[in-house]
Amino acid sequence: MAALFTGKVLLANREEIEVETERELSRALDNKVLLLYFGAGGCPRCRRFSRLLKDFFLRLTDDFYVERASQLGLVYVSRDETEQQQRAFLQTMPRRWLALPFGDAFKRELELRFSISEVPVVVVLKPNGEVLVGNAVEEIQRLGPACFQNWREAAELVDRNFLTAQDYDEQSSRSVTDPLRRLKYKLAKKKKTTMAKEGEEEEEES
């Protein structure tokens, strides 16, 4: 599923971190049922549904409700009028939600691809990108978290990637900070090697 966003940037942790490398996108999206949520914070219908979707998502992924986080991801594709409106909306939603940056041209491409006219719409995708449900809003309203079992079976997810809710958090945290940590490690290693060489040269001169 990461292939859908290859070369794109997604925002994580309520717009604080950019998820853009192939590895980060793979960890965030692969082998999961992915929900594309087309909505707007200023839309009354979206506000009502968003509260329901928030509860739906938390009951499947949050350690307050489940020991193991379900293989479920969500990308918010906004029709908000301003960046501030999008940011304010995301601040009230689960921190595991990803989002397309405000004003990203890829939003229009997704709207055309999935025939989005009015919002709210939740497109449910298999890990391979195939559409499971064109608009799951009514199904989520009617069945709640129970509908995820049907999606999971239809998507033929691989069970070995199930994570505890805590592991989910730790892996997500590692994935978005790994490049920075690797860079710091390389710089520290280079500095250590340089200092060692200088020490050897001083010994030879003495």
From TrEMBL:
GO terms for biological process: photoreceptor cell maintenance. Gene3D superfamilies: Glutaredoxin (3.40.30.10). GO terms for cellular component: mitochondrion. Residues 1-188 form the Thioredoxin domain. InterPro entries: RdCVF (IPR029520), Thioredoxin-like_fold (IPR012336), Thioredoxin-like_sf (IPR036249), Thioredoxin_domain (IPR013766). It holds the Pfam family Thioredoxin_8. Transmembrane segments: none annotated. PANTHER family: NUCLEOREDOXIN-LIKE PROTEIN 1. This is NXNL1 protein. It comes from Brachypteracias leptosomus (short-legged ground-roller).
